[in-house]
Design brief:
Blueprint: H1 4-13, H2 15-27, H3 38-51, E1 55-59, E2 67-72, E3 80-86, E4 106-108, E5 111-113, H4 117-138, E6 144-150, H5 160-166, H6 168-171, E7 175-177, E8 190-192, E9 194-195, E10 197-206, E11 212-213, H7 223-232, H8 255-263, H9 268-275, H10 286-295, E12 298-306, E13 316-317, E14 320-329, H11 335-348, E15 355-362, E16 365-366, H12 372-385, E17 390-392, H13 402-408, E18 412-413, E19 431-433, H14 434-453
Parallel strand pairs: 3-6, 3-7, 7-18, 8-17
Antiparallel strand pairs: 1-2, 2-6, 4-5, 5-19, 9-16, 10-14, 10-15, 11-13, 12-14
């Protein structure tokens, strides 16, 4: 792209300053799960955005964390580019596993360590610095920009859908760049065009009013067994979900999706070694393994609690038992509808006595690879990184992309982030590489510049 040399040189000259801005945001705790430092982080972020020339508005959220919205306009621009991020981070515990304090950013051997530096503060600040660089070099941006930054992503974004429904015109853009992605182990840029949905459910069964001696098992119902029998009706050894109607709305991958899976480099043997596995479930391999990972609904037991689980033995029949299950959803599945089918399934199979609690759910969402916005994102990645991007039609994980893609009909892609395979996201010693931070700034600046060359 013409004009990028001057931009890139500016970014290189000012990288130390851009790193200090990132350190400033990372020093401020913003742990949504612990309600720690949220308002203070909003204030720091507001100042960083204003310093980039962005008009900022803070939206208070009833019973939730504030949403930060920023806008930078060009009165002559006809298109608008949006960015979604979140300023909240995961709890830093266990603290003893950190080599340096999680909220005291430290650079070691070309890496910046801090809680949230990869997920997601590095991406936030990289985008702000790209705007600052572009404005300093060109004086104005060729496309209107919107910044949509929430503070509850790490706790499931419970108020996000309502906010979007109430502010669609404010948030509307021609395309949104989502929060993450970066490069793979070979330095290739990664582009993701969607995410699975999720339905998270907790089940509780009760037996006697208090734990009793296990010798009474012939007479006293065991709630743990109730849950085991219930779970056996959910899924079989073939990994197929047995709840009636679960697959009715599923949209299978297109030929283009399968082509992307065939083209995407994936070191299956290295992945299995890292997991300590001889083979994947059902012996899946090659494209079929990636197809299952990204396009198959799942039913996963997250945790099971009942009775005595300490050292040694204790012969006890528990008074209650609970199990938490997450169901990953694929394109066109609706968590509300599936939750009703799940409850109907329990009643039909004699498990109506089990208490069912829903702990949230997202719809899946995907942008087609041939969408003009997706094409712009992918082409820019190849030009900036000098390598063919790895394009995933959807992630195996979940993110609230649906509030933009499904509710507003706006294409969404994730690209140009600060992440890399060793970032240790959600773990002690979370980090990014300085070179990836620099490239992320350059990518966003190039994407903005693409609207100057190709409106």
């Amino acid at each position: 792209m013409e004009g990028l040399n001057e931009l890139n040189e500016y970014i290189d000259r000012n990288l130390d300053r851009f790193i200090e801005d990132l350190k400033l945001l990372c020093r401020q705790p913003s742990v949504s799960a612990q309600n720690k430092g949220i308002d203070e982080c909003v204030s720091v972020l507001e100042k960083l955005m204003e310093n980039a020339g962005i008009d900022v508005k803070i939206f208070e959220v009833k019973d939730g964390n504030p949403i930060v919205f920023g806008e930078l306009k060009n009165k002559n621009a006809k298109e608008c580019l949006g960015f979604y991020n979140h300023y909240d981070v995961q709890p830093p515990e266990p603290l003893e596993k950190w080599d340096s304090p999680p909220f005291k950013p430290e650079i070691r051997e070309g890496k910046l360590y801090a809680r949230g530096v990869s997920d997601n503060k590095g991406n936030i600040v990289a985008r702000l610095e790209a705007v600052k660089a572009y404005m300093d070099v060109y004086g104005e941006v060729p496309v209107n920009l919107k910044f949509f930054v929430e503070g509850e992503e790490e706790i499931g974004s419970p108020h996000l859908e309502r906010f979007v429904r109430e502010n669609m015109e404010l948030l509307r853009a021609d395309g949104y760049i989502w929060e993450g992605d970066g490069v793979d182990s070979e330095g290739r840029p990664v582009v993701s065009l969607g995410a699975k949905g999720i339905l998270y459910v907790e089940f509780k069964a009760k037996g006697p009013k208090t734990d009793v001696h296990s010798s009474r098992a012939p007479l006293v119902p065991n709630p743990a067994w109730r849950l085991v029998w219930m779970l056996s009706t959910f899924k079989g050894p073939d990994e197929k979900i047995k709840i009636p109607g679960w697959y009715d709305e599923v949209v299978p991958p297109s030929e283009k999706d399968l082509q992307l899976l065939r083209e995407a480099p994936f070191d299956e043997e290295a992945d299995k070694r890292e997991l300590g596995l001889k083979e994947y479930l059902l012996g899946l391999t090659g494209v079929e393994s990636q197809k299952a990972l990204r396009f198959s609904p799942t039913c996963n037991i997250c945790g099971f609690s009942a009775g005595y689980t300490g050292p040694g033995s204790k012969t006890v029949l528990p008074a209650e038992a609970s199990v938490k299950v997450d169901f990953r959803l694929v394109e066109a599945q609706k968590p509300d509808l599936l939750f009703e089918r799940l409850k109907d399934h329990l009643k039909r199979n004699g498990f109506g006595d089990i208490t069912v609690t829903r702990h949230g759910g997202y719809e899946p969402a995907r942008t087609p690879a041939d969408d003009p916005f997706a094409i712009r994102v992918i082409k820019t990645a190849e030009k900036v990184y000098g390598l063919k991007p790895v394009v995933w039609p959807t992630m195996a994980g979940t993110s609230p992309i649906y509030v933009v893609k499904n509710m507003m009909g706006i294409p969404v892609a994730s690209a140009g982030g600060v992440g890399y395979p060793g970032a240790l996201v959600h773990a002690p010693n979370e980090n990014i590489r300085i070179k990836d931070y620099s490239n992320s700034i350059k990518y966003v600046a190039a994407l903005i510049h693409s609207y100057r060359e190709n409106p």
